[in-house]
Design goal:
The complex is a heterotrimer of chains A (275), B (318) and C (432). Chain A has 275 residues and is mainly alpha-helical. Chain A is 79% helix and 0% strand. Chain A has 2 domains: 30 residues; 217 residues, MetI-like fold (Orthogonal Bundle), CATH 1.10.3720. Chain C has 2 domains: 186 residues, D-Maltodextrin-Binding Protein, domain 2; 207 residues, D-Maltodextrin-Binding Protein, domain 2 (3-Layer(aba) Sandwich), CATH 3.40.190.10. Chain C is built from 19 helices and 8 strands. In chain C, strands 1, 2, 3, 4, 5, 6, 7 and 8 form an 8-stranded mixed sheet that branches. Chain C is globular. The chains are: A mainly alpha (275), B mainly alpha (318), C alpha/beta (432).
């Protein structure tokens, strides 16, 4: 907050900040290095800092056949979830932003409540419903249950962004002869683009990271990578190299988004939190 | 057909709502219909994916239903709830959750505040540091759990190795009832302290520089400035971070499940895991649903209380 | 520009709908779905032996592997579902009670009793006593694949180094404890004993039940007055004390979190001297690529009171009630439990204790296996008792209560007596 003064204490604080971030990332760095270690190196004590990197772990993870299929499952479900989240999130967020009726307010409260509900409160009834409808272990079931996580959040986030867009802009478009829907698409959505991108990233990341719901409703055909990786620990119990390389594959898309969409993320988060 | 809409715009902490009135006329009935379809369907979806399940869960909580029992479900009214009240394992899980949540959140703020102050300073590379610092927050929680399970291992874990350098250990972090919960909390600290930091950082950055300059003219020292200026101005952010973190800490399942599976004994079997085991391992669906309802109630009461505090604060400030 | 956005959105939506809609479509060729517990032997089934079956029969087999810790729940959750997709499932003796009582698996009598579907060379390869013990309520519900009779594996070099005679391994629980004490080094760099300590998948109770059987403990036969809250009786308390002593004083640090894989690794790496566990886990100790102790492994069977003091953890294959094509499903079961698979898995070392005597007698297997192992295995199977989980639908829950208690004992959360009493109370509640 204060301008950094070229004093010793200032320099010490800067050093401390660097050290802190390095320490925070140390576990991840360790995870990454273990992925390239042989089984013997991974187990050696004291830990080996210098070792001959190997790609064997990645190879055996990918060759295990199922993991790639699980990865594909993750992608399919997450992309579908993100699309539906945007479609429904934009429209309901818009409505929420432009109405002050009791219904809309109640909906707003409801969204917050859903955000707070324990996951088991959704997983259990969804499991029972899907079981009755023969939908367990299908993509639509997965997308539907993921929507309980992403949709309320996206609606909430986008409502905030839409509120920031002056109604006058829409009115101007309508005077030019646009219908309301056209005005929504031509004026509101383009101006809220950063918000929409943030909502998309959040839907993607949070459904990619989801573990509890797929643990219950997914099966052989739809098991996502997040659940599959948990299986590594029980069967290969002690093969950390393979586990870590699988972990890296799981983390890749998430990290890509985090690094490339940094600004939007932070703004989206604080924006969401502030509302 | 006239629609009167009021929009409320919010930008940044504690901003005052700006009210505008807008008049909209739909050009034709057809246009109105398609517009309502456009906004109606999403609400219906939102409603379906959120409301219906909770009703089903509520109904299920009134049933005595073991999936493995060929007899099927029997309506028993509130029996599941009375059984919970007399079940020591449930109370154990409840207290454990209270311990886990309060310890996690308290430590997160104790750590998060200094870190936010540290990263709010301007120095070379601070932007990169901020970006790097939020990485844990995005990391897949299952991976975080597995990672810490590896780091805390007794045979080749990095943590025990580091301790051995100073002559301690090896500590069986996840196998000892006394250390398992702290270990699980530690992993959550790593995972979600960045969230607290980001929120606080946004708050710190929104405080105008002039406020500090005025304070330094008055000759106020660092600690006094922090206590009397920074902290009060950060209050709304603190409340909101608190609300989010408490809600998420209660829901924390994946890291605990992968690190300890609720063990050793039931030393880390928090409510979420306890309910999961009841419903999906012992197949006592009714009991699991009852626990979910109790959890929902607790969360609602708590966050209702916090939200009310936030609102009251807003009013006092505005 | 804007309408392009709209179009793109609609396009995306349609694609994903198409993607989600086309899940679960299959070809016209016959298909079977198979659920397996994730082990070395089942991995091999998936990678080499099932493709062979597919090739020779033209039946496509969809395989899913599930970790052992999640298997009980997986079985119950998928089979209780009327849209269950599995035709053949791997079941443990511990699962049969639940599965049979809920009619989730089918009786196999019509196939077993028909010489056309079960020829003599198939059926005759199983020990007669085994075929009797796997029956539930007088009917066949499963065909045995693995008989995990427990064996004491020990490291002969460590015995010699500690001044013990490697040809005279401990004979009962008391000797086991005494020997473990002498084999444990003060700094725990060498542990005298290793077993399963984790409560995940109720694994620790498996080790405990092995010891309990040796001490004369048994579950009651199902019946109106059957009593399952027996954990505060003397054999159970003695066993709990012995288990605690072995696992916390003489086992490697961290053993409280061990499953079978970790225990096996501790033996392979020469960190532990003795290991009491199911026979099929043994051959991996003799695998020169994975094990530092290959060639130094001793095998023995502990003695207990009575006749059936050895836990016979049978893994078997069952047919689900919803199997769409029972005839082909039976063919798959017959293949998986037949002599060819048993011999080839015994030779490759992934399945050390097939449920077939004709496989053990096969010359190829005789050449591969350590004769001491085969001898111990035969002795163990002769005393095997597959009822190591109460044969009632609540069996798994009772095991969970026991596992929780043992985990508390090991972690120091509760004393032996208190923990066992708590488990007993829990069992009473379950049985109400």
């Amino acid at each position: 907050m204060n301008k950094a003064r070229a004093t010793t204490s200032g320099r010490l604080l800067t050093l401390l900040a660097y050290a802190l971030v390095l320490c925070t990332l140390l576990p991840l760095l360790w995870l990454f290095s273990t992925a390239f270690k042989t089984r013997v190196d991974a187990f050696s004590m004291p830990p080996k800092l210098l070792f001959e990197p190997t790609l064997d772990n990645f190879r055996s993870v990918l060759e295990q056949g199922d993991f790639l299929a699980n990865y594909a499952n993750s992608l399919i479900v997450v992309v579908a979830t993100t699309c539906f989240t945007l479609l429904f999130g934009i429209t309901s967020g818009y409505t929420l932003a432009r109405t002050r009726s009791k219904g809309a307010r109640a909906m707003g409260m409801w969204i917050i409540l859903v955000r707070m509900a324990p996951p088991i409160g959704f997983a259990l009834p969804f499991f029972l419903m899907f079981r009755t409808l023969n939908l367990l272990d299908t993509y639509p079931a997965m997308v539907l249950i993921y929507l309980t996580v992403t949709l309320p959040f996206a609606t909430w986030l986008l409502a905030g962004y839409f509120q920031g867009i002056p109604v006058e802009m829409e009115e101007a478009a309508r005077i030019d002869g646009c219908s309301r829907i056209a005005a929504l698409f031509r004026v509101v959505i383009p101006s809220a683009w950063p918000g929409i991108a943030t909502a998309a990233i959040f839907s993607f990341v949070s459904s990619w990271n989801e573990f509890f719901y797929p643990l219950i409703v997914s099966g052989r055909d739809t098991k996502p990578a997040s659940v599959a990786i948990q299986g590594f620990i029980s069967s290969a119990g002690v093969n950390w190299g393979e586990l870590c390389s699988a972990a890296i594959l799981v983390l890749l898309p998430v990290f890509a988004f985090t690094l490339f969409a940094q600004k939007g993320l932070i703004r989206g988060l604080t924006h969401g939190a502030v509302k | 057909m006239t629609l009167v809409r009021e929009a409320e715009s919010v930008d940044g902490a504690g901003a005052r709502p700006v009210r505008r009135r807008a008049r909209f006329r739909h050009r034709s009935r057809g246009e109105a219909a398609s517009f309502y379809l456009l906004i109606g369907v999403p609400f219906l979806v939102l409603f379906l994916v959120t409301f219906v399940p909770l009703v089903v869960a509520l109904w299920t909580s009134l049933l005595d239903w073991n999936l493995a029992d060929p007899a099927g479900a029997v309506f028993v009214g509130l029996e599941n709830f009375t059984a919970l009240a007399g079940d020591p394992a449930f109370w154990h899980a409840l207290l454990l959750t209270a311990y886990q949540v309060s310890a996690t959140v308290a430590l997160q703020f104790a750590l998060g505040m200094p870190i936010a102050l540290l990263l709010a300073r301007r120095f070379r590379g601070v932007k990169v540091l901020r970006s790097l610092y939020i990485i844990p927050m995005m990391t897949t929680p299952v991976v975080v759990g597995l990672m810490w399970r590896m780091l805390l291992g007794t045979d080749s874990g990095l943590v025990n190795y580091a301790l051995s350098l100073v002559g301690i250990g090896p500590v069986d972090w996840l196998g000892d009832a006394g250390t398992a919960m702290p270990a699980v909390i530690g992993a959550d600290l790593w995972l979600s302290t960045p969230f607290v930091v980001i929120i606080l950082l946004a708050g710190l950055q929104s405080i105008p520089q002039e406020v500090y300059e005025a304070a330094s003219v008055d000759g106020a020292g660092g600690l006094r400035v922090f206590l009397h200026i920074t902290l009060p101005l950060l209050k709304p952010m603190i409340f909101l971070a608190l609300l989010f973190r408490v809600m998420d800490a209660i829901r924390r399942f994946d890291t605990i499940y992968t690190m300890t599976g609720g063990g050793p004994g039931n030393a880390t079997e928090t409510l979420d895991l306890h309910a999961y085991f009841a419903a999906f391992r012992d197949l006592e669906i009714g009991k699991g649903a009852a626990m979910a309802m109790v959890m929902l109630l607790i969360i609602m009461v708590f966050s209702g209380f916090l939200l009310a505090r936030v609102r009251a604060d807003d009013r006092a400030d505005g | 520009m804007q309408s392009t956005t709209a179009r793109a959105l609609v396009g995306l939506l349609l694609t994903t709908t198409a993607l989600t809609a086309c899940s679960g479509t299959g070809g016209d060729s016959p298909e079977l779905s198979l659920l397996l517990v994730d082990q070395a032997s089942t991995k091999e089934l998936q990678s080499t032996l099932i493709p062979r079956f597919e090739k020779s029969t033209g039946i496509k087999v969809n395989v899913e592997l599930v970790p052992e810790s999640g298997m009980d729940a997986k079985l119950a959750l998928s089979l209780s579902n009327n849209s269950n997709q599995y035709d053949v499932v791997m079941t443990g003796a511990k699962n049969w009670s639940t599965l049979v009582a809920s009619k989730w698996i089918k009786p196999l009598d019509e196939y077993v009793n028909d010489p056309k579907t079960a020829p003599k060379d198939y059926l005759g390869g199983f020990p007669g006593q085994l075929l009797e013990t796997i029956k539930s309520g007088g009917h066949y519900y499963a065909m045995p694949y693995q008989v995990g009779a427990d064996i004491l594996f020990y490291n002969k070099k460590m015995f010699t180094a500690a001044g013990l005679d490697p040809s005279k391994p401990p004979k009962d629980m008391n000797e086991l404890i005494e020997t473990a004490r002498r084999l444990t080094k003060a700094d725990r760099s060498q542990a005298g004993f290793v077993g399963r300590g984790t409560r995940e998948g109720n694994e620790n109770s498996f080790t405990w039940i092995m010891m309990w059987f040796l001490n004369g403990g048994h579950w009651a036969e199902p019946g109106a007055n059957a009593k399952y809250d027996v954990l505060t009786e003397k054999p159970a308390l003695t066993t709990a004390d012995q288990y605690k002593r072995l696992m916390s004083e003489y086992a490697p640090k961290g053993a409280a979190g061990y499953g079978f894989a970790e225990a096996q690794l501790a033996m392979q790496q020469g960190k532990a001297a003795m290991w009491l566990d199911a026979a099929q886990l043994g051959p991996a100790l003799e695998d020169k690529n994975a094990s530092k102790i290959a060639g130094d492994v001793g095998y023995s069977v502990l003695r207990g009171t009575g006749e059936d003091y050895i836990v016979g953890a049978v893994w078997a294959f069952s047919m689900t009630s919803t199997a769409r094509d029972p005839k082909r499903a039976w063919e798959l079961i017959k293949y998986l439990t037949g002599k060819d698979v048993a011999v080839s898995q015994a030779v490759s070392g992934t399945n050390g204790s097939p449920g077939r005597t004709d496989a053990l007698a096969d010359p190829a297997v005789g050449q591969k296996f350590n004769p001491e192992f085969v001898k111990a295995l035969q002795e163990a199977i002769a005393h095997a008792n597959p009822r190591y989980t109460p044969l009632i639908p609540e069996g798994t829950q009772i095991r969970s209560a026991l596992s929780l208690a043992l985990s508390k004992v090991l972690s120091g959360e509760a004393g032996t007596e208190a923990a066992m009493k708590e488990a007993d109370d829990a069992i009473r509640k379950i049985m109400q």
